[in-house]
Amino acid sequence: MSEPIVVMGICGSYDLDSANGRMLEIVLDKCKELGAETVIWDHGARPLPLVGAEGCWDDPNVKDFQEMAISADAFVLSSPEYHGTMSGVMKNSLDWLYSKHTSGKVFGLICTLGGQTSNNTLNHMRIAARWIHGWVTPEQIAVPNIKEAFNEDGSLVSDDINSRVIGLAASIVENTGKLRK
Ligand SMILES: Cc1cc2nc3c(=O)[nH]c(=O)nc-3n(C[C@H](O)[C@H](O)[C@H](O)COP(=O)(O)O)c2cc1C
């Protein structure tokens, strides 16, 4: 039997105790149910310096982040929409990844919005993922009106978004199985 695939979550919010941290947890749990192993980068505990900042090229957090990416077969990116695009935390995370870490690997995309659904952040992340030679799934999730999106127990209120979670996780696991060498 082949090794389980490894799916890495990257959060566009600093704190995993956030809407995007929760969305990653929900999607990664579904990937686990489908047989994947999952890892998640914790920016709050191990922040990445801005690309180009003094000392950034030797930062141990950057090295470990890139090694986690090398060990992953697929990625889930979950970003808040900030001013119509991905957060700086997400963009800077992607700036630390090159095709040698990500080439030929599957990417699934999620964004959360304070307001109404928009595809801007999803489209911008899709472009960045393509630039590092990722294969982005057609399934993607935008979670609007984020303050009303979760029940008290952390589950999603919307059945439609729940079914998108199932579709996204299934697509990531299935397509990673097809693409993995
Ligand atoms: C600087 C900033 C810009 C924002 N811009 C937008 C925006 O353009 N559209 C929108 O719907 N929500 C916007 N929001 C709301 C965030 O998308 C929302 O707070 C976030 O999705 C919540 O996720 P989190 O708990 O992971 O931070 C903005 C919030 C901040 C702090």
Write out the CATH superfamily name. Flavodoxin domain
CATH secondary-structure class: Alpha Beta
Write down the domain tally. Answer: 1
| Shape, per Cα inertia axes | globular
Low-confidence runs: none
Main sheet makeup:
6 strands, mixed
Overview of this protein structure:
The chain is of the alpha/beta class. It has a single domain (6-44, 64-179), classed as Flavodoxin domain (Rossmann fold, 3-Layer(aba) Sandwich), CATH 3.40.50. It has 6 helices and 6 strands, in the order βαβαββααβαβα. Strands 1, 2, 3, 4, 5 and 6 form a 6-stranded mixed sheet that branches. Strand 3 (74-82) and strand 4 (85-86) form a beta hairpin. Helix 1 crosses helix 6 (159-179). The longest helix has 21 residues, at 159-179. The mean pLDDT is 97. Bound molecules: flavin mononucleotide. Flavin mononucleotide is lined by residues 13, 18-20, 80-84, 112-115, 146.
